[in-house]
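W.,

You were right to be curious about this one. When I first looked at the sequence I had no strong expectations either way, so I just let the prediction run and decided to look at it fresh. Below is the sequence, 257 residues in total, followed by the output.
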Amino acid sequence: MARDAYIARTMSFNALVLAGSRGGADPVADYAGVSDKALIPIGGETMLAHVVAALREAGAARIAVSASGDAVKVHATALGAEVLEAAGGPSLSTRQGLDQLGAPLLVTTADHALLEPQWVRQFLDDVPPGADVAALLARRETIERDAAGTRRTYLRFADGEWSGCNLFHLATPAAGAAIDLWQTVERDRKRPWRIVRRLGAGMLLRYVTGRLSLAEALARLGAACGVRASVVEARDGLAAVDVDKPADLDFVRALRR
């Protein structure tokens, strides 16, 4: 095993769990009959409890939960996590978490209901040396192999179709610049061509004609804000499953009975 991989696997890290509300009623929480999505019970524990336990088993030394609901804050405290007041959206909450917890920082979400410690360790092991920020993504064929029946949003690039896995590694303080960019594109997360358009007409043309790879797009986005950004490919397609809609909840509950 390479020395860098060994260090990444064995060292502890800090983690931030995004559990804030976007405002208004949450259809998944309503479907489950609870006040907040993070409190939905699955397999005898809440989604938040499962995520915190997985991070702790993976080696997290310090875990903070960014929350807006009082019930979620109380629950997070009972789980032994620190509580941060959620800001106006995931990107702002992440910026706040980075400011308070520092880098390196692993970021995930409370609705990552199938999160496994092994996925976290493998992700950290696979982050390329020198990266300021890295994101875990899964190929469509990997998701369809391991999570047949779930519906994901895919980014289509020359090297395949990819879906996010809600796992991010902010490796250095420079990752703050990537969060600033995230704030500007957050509203376009379901419309990747608008994000790619920020790279200029040439990159947009390459994306539209299917000649732009995901790694190249991310590298160019990173360069646009002065950071070294990398993609890590998920080994398990279930890592791309989060609970965004009632059908997702039914899917994960069937797996974690």
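Here's what jumped out at me. The chain has a mean pLDDT of 89. And, maybe more interesting for your project: The longest strand covers residues 160-170.

Coffee later to discuss?

I.
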